[in-house]
Design goal:
Length: about 150
Amino acid sequence: MTVSGSTTFLTNGNIVNSGTLTVYAGSTLSASGAASFTNDGLLDLLTSPASTLPAGFVNNGTVILSNNVAVRSFSKTGTSVALSILSFTGHNYQLQGRASISSGSWQNIGSAQGGTSITNNDGSISGTVLNFSDTGGATGSAKFYRIQVSP
């Protein structure tokens, strides 16, 4: 099941997710009252940072949150930068940069890459590593980078 747009997926009773529930940016996951949410599958909240895990949440599966997209490695050699992150199926990742942390437009660097995941022997899901580089682009006194994730 996919929740997208500006939708709230609100549980009023007990829910068991045995498949894949993806809540995209702009949408939220919420539970009311004494409702319980048991995740036996994959709960993907990667681009929905407004979502919080409901009270009474029980996880027997895999939950992907926005903090799962973290830099795994970073290196700078001369004016070239290389970095890697974890990626997940169903999302695209784009390296972006700009000269100021607080102003200016983020510029795409290279092509967007599709994420992939693997299923472990125990049935859990793990992200796979994506590598990005800005060859010769790190010039001047400072440059800031981010990874844009969509959807």
